[in-house]
Design brief:
This protein has about 300 residues and is of the alpha/beta class. The protein is built from six helices and ten strands. Among the domains are: about 55-115, D-Maltodextrin-Binding Protein, domain 2 (3-Layer(aba) Sandwich); about 140-265 and about 275, D-Maltodextrin-Binding Protein, domain 2. Helix 5 (about 190-195) links the parallel strand 5 (about 180-185) and strand 6 (about 225).
């Protein structure tokens, strides 16, 4: 509209007015500024460069299986932040990892692009390796449910590993045999357990491969077997009745395992079938979610 009538026609005056339906110059400037801001924010979100402390290349991580879950998670986080970085994993035990690092360091002239994790102090005989504390790790013993124990004293644990206790009923548990599942001798977890719990005493040798029956010709006292990783040890303790092992506290036991660690012991929360009487007196199957053994 270019013009319009203002007031009455009787006065004979016609006043021209301007339409205000268009965009003012102030609004146009604000829109332009907003558009530029959106573009800059989008570019910073979708095209952000890697942080200045990122390092590109590949590094091999070796050593303790106890640290494997957190090592893999940390490496994945770093890789997402620093796309130029990649990782290889050869986690097969603390001693093996330190040996590999020392060997590859000599071969590469001191720069092997490798990092070893050990859950114990560096042993003697590796002067080229420089230890650096990286984390604080908690260790615990872990038992199969059929052992029937909720807590063990330090003295009881030492007696069990010395072979003085052969059945769990001797320490207040169920009447099932004690079966010990250990790590291999080059494990940092085993060295820590021997040094801190067994007062420096070495665990006796194994006498079983399946952790259930003694090997042919082996002495029959307490069943003792070994596993090469923390995961394998926990899996074995879970399925072998009366089994006892040790690990760091990070990977929670599952299924039929728990931590016998005094008043702090708690069984993992899971849904387990439980037989319970109904009003009719007949047993029925229901599910409990509380942390306790199945109903009997």
């Amino acid at each position: 509209m270019v013009g319009g009538i203002k007031g009455g026609v009787g006065n004979g005056g016609i006043r021209v007015t301007r339409s205000r339906t268009g965009i003012s110059w102030i609004m146009a400037v604000m829109i332009c500024v907003l558009a530029v801001t959106v573009v800059e924010v989008g570019r910073s979100v979708f095209f952000a460069p890697a942080p200045i402390d990122c390092v590109a290349g590949q590094i091999t991580l070796v050593g303790s299986t106890a640290f494997e879950p957190v090592v893999r998670e940390t490496a994945d986080t770093y890789r997402r932040s620093c796309p130029g970085a990649s990782f290889a994993f050869e986690l097969s035990g603390s001693a093996e990892g330190l040996r590999l690092l020392d060997e590859r360091g000599v071969q590469a002239g001191g720069d092997p692009s490798m990092l070893a994790f050990s859950d114990g102090p560096k042993p003697d005989g590796l002067p080229q390796l420089l230890p650096r504390p990286a984390a604080f790790s908690l260790f615990t013993v872990v038992a199969n449910r059929d052992a029937g124990v909720l807590d063990l004293s330090l003295d009881q644990i030492r007696r069990i590993y010395a072979g003085e206790v052969t059945r769990w009923s001797e320490v207040g548990g169920a009447d099932v045999p004690v079966r010990l599942v250990s790590r291999e001798p080059d494990s940092g977890t085993r060295r820590t357990f021997q040094g801190q719990v067994l007062a420096g005493q070495r665990e006796p040798g194994t006498n079983s491969d399946d952790c259930v029956n003694p090997d042919p010709g082996a002495p029959v006292d307490v069943i003792r077997c070994e596993r090469s990783s923390t995961t394998e040890l926990l899996d074995t303790v879970r399925v072998v009745p009366g089994a006892l092992g040790y690990s760091e506290l990070a990977p929670r036991p599952s299924g039929r395992t728990w931590w016998p660690s005094g008043s702090a012991a708690r069984t993992p929360r899971s849904r387990r079938p439980c037989r319970a009487p109904t009003r009719s007196g007949r047993p029925s199957t229901r599910t409990r979610t509380r942390s306790r053994p199945p109903c009997r």
